[in-house]
Structures are given as structure tokens and as C-alpha cells.
Amino acid sequence: MNVLGIDIGGSGIKGAPVDTMAGKLVEERLRIPTPQPSKPDEVAESVAAIVEHFGWNGPVGVTFPGVVKEGVVLTAANVHHSWIGVDAAALFGGASVLNDADAAGVAEMTFGHGRGEHGTVLVLTFGTGIGSALFIDGTLVPNTELGHLELRGKDAEHRASARVREEGELSWEKWAERVEEYLRHVEMLLSPTLIVIGGGVSKKAGKFLPHVHLDTPVLPAVLQNEAGIIGAALSAVPRP
Questions:
Q1: Can you tell me the distance from the alpha carbon of 85 to that of 3, in angstroms, rounded to the nearest whole number?
Q2: Which residues contact 167 (CB under 8 A, 6 or more apart)?
């Protein structure tokens, strides 16, 4: 069945109808810049605009860049702090709401490199921050937030996110050194069997992954930057 998936990020809000059996977008996605400041009502207006753009009246899944429990936002590192405590599911008209990296991870585990993979699999999204989705034998451990692990005295995402590379005008090779340092840290903590790198930079994996050397296999996300939209849609598929 087709479900509308919407992926809220620190810089953009993207959405499209998704064929949840095939894991593919069935229409060209719409991207709206994230309102600044990214307060709940303003973001909700952007989400509503995407719903209206597609003339959608079916199930909707929405990702959020923070910890989400039963539809309620508990953290907001890369959007306005006023999100904390908001019932996002209610704000978005009863949509299914989950952490953005968890959504991307679910999509990759269903349709990407994680499919059929046993053991500990870690999906990391590099964008405005670093999102994480942890899976044990295919089961999600939600809201891990491993981008906030401390590295050199600060949040890891403040050293190794894609935004840091752009704002610091780092070369791909120089940024890869920071990514490798971070990945070695999570490798030491979790001993994963596979690490999947997602987010917008996954489209340019050839520019940095060859410079990243780990004992754990590291692969770019198959679904690239569409993973969040697809995972959001999967979360909203009605259960029988």
C-alpha cells in the first residue's frame, strides 16, 4: 500500500508517497526549507503543506530529529527547544511519529544492506547532526542518539557531522579522518557486525569512505537520503 512519508530535518522537510511493499517513492519528493526558528506550529504548517501538495488523505508517517516516545518529543538538539514535551503525533493530526535516524535505519534494514543481517547493525545518518539507529538481530533499539557521544570534549556531531564539514570547509579526506575517529569510538563500544552510513553524504560515499578504515564493514546506505521518508511511511502502515 502507499503511505505518505515526511522526514523533518534541521535544514529541510521532505515528503513523498511511498510504495511500502517495494520501498520506493511513487511521486517526486517535495522539499521545503525547515522554518527558522523551527518552532512546532511553523514546522506543522510545513508538514501540512506537504500533505496538501500531494492531496493526501491516507496514513502519514513523520520523522523527527530527536527522541520520540509514544509520539511525544523528549529532546530537540537541531530544532527549536520549544519542541520538548510536545505531542507531535497529535500536532500532526494523528500521524505516526518516530526518530528520524530510527526511520532511516528501519528502511535500510527492510530494503537496504541491513536486510537479513543478524547480530548488531548500526545505521548512522550524517547531516545537520549525526543520527543513529541500532538493531539487534533485526530488532530496533529506539532513540539511541549516539551522535551525542562525547569526542574530544564535545558532542561527536559537533566534530564529524556533514554540517561541520561544510561550515569548516573541510576536504573530504580531512573530514573522513573525523568520521573514522567517531566510528572507531562506536565500534569499540558496540562491536557491530555492520555499519551503514546514511544521510545526504551517502550519495557521495566515494569521496570519503575509501579514506575510512575500520575492522567492521562500513557501507553506504542503499536508499541514500530517501531512507527517512521510506522509514516514516513504513511506521504508518496499518497493522492487521
A1: 27
A2: none
Separation of alpha carbons 48 and 29, rounded Å: 15
Instruction: Answer yes or no: is pLDDT of 240 > 80.
Output: no
| SS3 of 156-187 | CHHHHCHHHHHHCCCCHHHHHHHHHHHHHHHH
Its sign, for the CA torsion 186, 189, 191, 193, is negative
**Tally of CB atoms within 10 A around 105:** 33
Backbone φ, ψ for residue 43 (5° rounding) = -65, -40
Is the peptide bond preceding residue 37 cis, with omega within 30 degrees of 0?
yes
What pLDDT does 238 receive?
84
Distance between CA atoms of residues 48 and 43, nearest Å: 9
Say how many C-beta atoms besides its own lie within 10 A of residue 175's C-beta: 24
The pTM is what? 0.94
In the 8-state DSSP scheme, what is residue 239?
A: P
Across 141-160, average pLDDT = 96
